[in-house]
Batch of 3 targets.
Target 1
Amino acid sequence: MKSRLPLILGVCVLTLAACSWSKTPQNDTKNPDSAGDPAVVMEENGVAMSNGVMLTVEDGAMSRMDKDVTYANGTTVKVDGTVTLADGTVLVLPEGMMVTVDGELRLSDSYASIQDPAPIAESSAIYTAYSDAVAKDGKTKVLFFHAAWCPECKKADATLTSWFPSEDFTRSVYKVDYDTAKELKAKYGVIYQHTFVVVDGQGVKISSAQGPTEVELKALLK
């Protein structure tokens, strides 16, 4: 019996080794599939800046941003690119950056591959409320000194709302509260409501028009 014990042990070892070897290929066949799962990368939903234009990113599709948004953590993003983070930090969204629906600021995954359609690339003109962040944004713009009690201002406001966004204009219009913007009125010499002031990218006055007609107003926006 003693002489047969080593033989029996050897057979058991070989059997266990064979079973282990036969299972290995089955595990290997699963690796390619499991490794391939993370390869699919989808851009997060949110808003992104591309060529000076704010885009809404939703389920991988991009379109022009047409209204201000506020996310759950308190971060707000305006159509002019002004971002107010949850901690109170205010900035203009840099090129290639995005704000996710979680309110987080980061580099857009799709930035390198974004191909802007011609209509968007050619026109970044918008009509929205004025903020200090756009004062020196490097773009020529128009400031509209608007008073809520002024009938002509209300009419101009409705007209501008119907015009924008538009591919016909190259200058954005920012609505300024005539009654409260004392510093801006003093800076640009505005003494009446319904006044439009054209300023350069550094906030320096170029020209102004008080109570312009629609034709004259369109000329300011070209």
Note: The radius of gyration is 31 Å.
Target 2
Amino acid sequence: MRLQSFFLLLVLSVCVCAQTKEVAITIDDLPLNGAQFEPVRLRKMTDNFLAAIKKHQIPAVGFVNERLLYHNNEADARIAILKSWLDGGVELGNHNFSHLGFANAALADFEDDFVRGDAVTRLLMRPNKPRYFRHPFLQMGKTAADEKAFEDFAAARGYKMAPVTVDVLDWMINAAHAKARASNDEAMVKQVGEEYVKFAAQRFDYSEQVAQELFGRPIKHIVLMHANELTAENLDAMAVLLKSKGYKFISVEEALQDPVYQMPEKYLGTSDRLGHWAFSSGKKLSPPQPPDFLQQPYLENQRNRR
């Protein structure tokens, strides 16, 4: 009854009057998602991100895996690149030191990885402090009690959780982009980028549809992207497309002011908030998936690792 009443309150709230589409952009796995490469190439990727962010005035948050700063004895260069995100107006958040997932980790181990995850970030952000945490793999605790214990632990250190309502699966599609780039197949690089943007638009449309069905109005969305070359090279095109669809870019802070993020819900163990809401209301989700040619390189990589 409490859950049903909250849904009714959301539908009848004053917020219903505002039909503007709004989205907060978040970027995971800074400084680099996926296969690692040299600082010169990493700098170019970062510059591509920052150019699009500046052009479209996107108040983004980037979530850092500090373990990646120490790859191949490149700490100085990688920390300098991480600082450039801050200099470019991007707020930094904590994504754990080693990208440890919570689903199969003990609470104490997860808390330890969390604490280690912002040592450099805190130094770079002075006098400000990191405010947001993103669960690696979007995995929350095995139980609601474990998750509450962690969130209380994080809150005592000034953190709020940063959930997700739109996932564009660039962590998967980037493998197709990387394969084309490694083969110097610029035509395929272009095709992958164009199809990625089209697919991302489909995921946005689907999330809007689900939100409309659940709440009777647009909500303030939070989209999950990753620090990879695929998104770096196509963020400008994606931003143009989103603007053409009526989206306004907002901060995570603004997004979390939407009452939907405070609603009671059944525990599902994922930071995919749209999934939580659908599960709580008994709705099954069936989001669009990428075309096969965008999935295959990732799946091949996974098979080769076994």
Note: The chain has one domain: 2-304.
Target 3
Amino acid sequence: MTFLKSTVSNNAPSSISIDRSKIRSLFRKGGAGNVSAFTQAAAYYLDLLSEYFYLLGYTDPCDRLFEIEATLFECWRYAPYIRRVSDFERFLEIQLEKRSQDRFLDLPEPHSHLGQLDHLQRFLLVARIYQGWTYRSLYLATRKKKPGSIERWPILNA
């Protein structure tokens, strides 16, 4: 797994923001019971999940894969209620928050601050910096009330 991406990729839109209508269509089919469509839609989020769980301390690929599978299984159970892509992203964010409780990563310097991030900071770091999500997608996934508040977070402007 490559963890660091060049800063040039931050300017390019992510595949999620480009293909939101396609993903929405796949989630609707998945909500009707089409496992294949749900799997195709969830595949867009594999990098996000892998990087998030890596920051949680799941450095072994087998452990990380197990956590990804368990998270996506919970999302599959929620599939009939997905109407928009942001519904799935919100549910995914909630599932990641549940899985991040009781986890603490003790990293050596100069990376020790990454281990001290709370769930929301970690999610925003991975989604915005490493995956290139738009601020609008972040608002919808986190359901933050005040527009503009996410852009001012130090974690996103580092």
Note: Residues 1-11 have pLDDT under 50 and may be disordered.
